[in-house]
């Protein structure tokens, strides 16, 4: 599993002015919100936002973009439970009976 420190090191290679405290606070927020959540594979859910952040660092994304990923995944998973986010199945089509043929 990728660690926060690895992401921070990558960011600092292309952005020496990075706001380490901002990134750390966003990561801690995400880690706290995802505590106890697991993926279907059994791995901690936090792996996903960390991997997305790693991809962003490969793209040399700025601090705000990385922070948004950690905040977005945290609030998205908390505000709308996964089963509620799935659309309901469409009702079977009903043919109108008009008497005409």
Keywords:
101 residues; mainly alpha; Hypothetical protein af1432; 5 helices
Rg over C-alpha atoms, rounded to the nearest angstrom: 21 Å
Main pleated-sheet profile: none
CATH class designation? Mainly Alpha
Count the E strands.
0
Mean pLDDT: 79
**The CATH topology:** Hypothetical protein af1432
CATH architecture identity = Orthogonal Bundle
Q: How many domains make up the coordinates?
A: 1
Secondary-structure element order, as H and E? HHHHH
- Shape annotation: elongated
Residues in β-strands, percent: under 5%
- Helical residue percent band: 55-70%
Fourth-level CATH superfamily: Hypothetical protein af1432
Number of helices: 5
In short:
This protein is mainly alpha-helical and 101 residues long. It has one domain: Orthogonal Bundle (Hypothetical protein af1432), CATH 1.10.3210.10. It has helices spanning 4-14, 20-33, 47-58, 63-79, 82-85.
Topology:
Layout: H1 4-14, H2 20-33, H3 47-58, H4 63-79, H5 82-85
Helix pairs in contact: 1-3, 2-4, 3-4
Kindly describe this structure.
With 101 residues, this protein is mainly α. It has a single domain, classed as Hypothetical protein af1432 (Orthogonal Bundle), CATH 1.10.3210. It has five helices and no strands. α3 packs antiparallel against α4. The radius of gyration is 21 Å and the shape is elongated. The N and C termini lie far apart (65 Å). 18% of the residues are buried.
